[in-house]
Amino acid sequence: MDLQQRINAFAKLGQFLSQFKNDNIIKDESVIANDLFFDGFKHQIKLAKEHNGWFTQNNIFFSLESWSNSLTNNNLNQWTSKYNFNIKNPKTIAIIMAGNIPLVGFHDFLCVLISGHNVLVKQSSNDKHLLPFLAKYMEIVEPEFKGKISFTEEKLENFDAVIATGSDNTARYFEYYFKDKPSIIRKNRNSVAILTGNESAEQLEALSEDIFRYYGLGCRNVSKLFVPKDYNFDAFFNAIYKWHPIINEAKYANNYDYNKAVYLMSEFDMLENGFMMVKEDESYASPIATLFYEYYESIEDLQKKLQIDSDKIQCIVAHGFSNNEIKFGETQKPQLWDYADNVDTVEFLLKI
After folding, report:
1. What is the rounded CA–CA span in Å between residue 18 and residue 70?
2. What is the C-alpha radius of gyration for the chain, rounded to an integer number of angstroms?
3. pTM exceeds 0.90 for this model
4. Does pLDDT of 23 surpass 90?
5. Which domains does the chain have, with CATH numbers?
6. Which keywords, in A-to-Z order, does the entry hold (predicted)?
């Protein structure tokens, strides 16, 4: 199977996923193998929602639509054009996936298969319904994928390299356990936004997508703001108000009530608007329904601080702050060539 076959197969998967939109699920008769998979995938979406309360229909469909937009022939060809795919002896790459947002491990899955290797997936129990079904679809549209994709719930065995994502604690375990294997080990990271007070209402409203999408559970979600001294949060609170219905969702509301009670009993200063708390804190990882903030004296000092803390940060949302910043509202729309932790996964796989 050559690279173009693999690209074509993933582009077909993108066409399949394009049928599943939050506002409208429409069966496209031109999609390959649709009669076999369309209704079945609707059922897997239902199971995913029932199994994990954080996987609402809105968030699942947002993930599916994002992947359908990414998996086009143009995007896949542009992404792969910078690499030299010349693997003669495919290896088996184990992937240990997180389960914080729907299909969070799909990019690693894609990277392994597009590079020509075989993949052995160990999924999180929180996100186990969608990917195996999509893998079966891949095997139908490109039969040469059969035998190259496997899933396990047991101890990982018979693999040549590993990509593992987890918390800081599990990363220490991964580093010890996989010390004799080529590996990418990912730890906790969070995303931040830099505000100056000159942002437009449109920019701040876009920022709310970076904060609330997936309930803030993703490493690309903004969990902390850096603001200038005497920053007025009124415009910020006005701009994020469109997300206020989120408080009607039980799991989010329970976290909001719990964290608010903790802050009040501890007599912490905070601002809140009935569905989001904003608290001054030096940490990068904020609890659900809470956004931390920290004041900065100057842009130069802040740039130095974030450079020192770069191993804790996934995305920097800003306007005119740095060369690697992300626009407001864009953190949950990464391109295929936007790698987690800025580690080029394909380059790693091609050197094994």
Report:
1. 10
2. 21
3. yes
4. no
5. 3-187 (3.40.605.10), 190-317 (3.40.309.10)
6. NADP
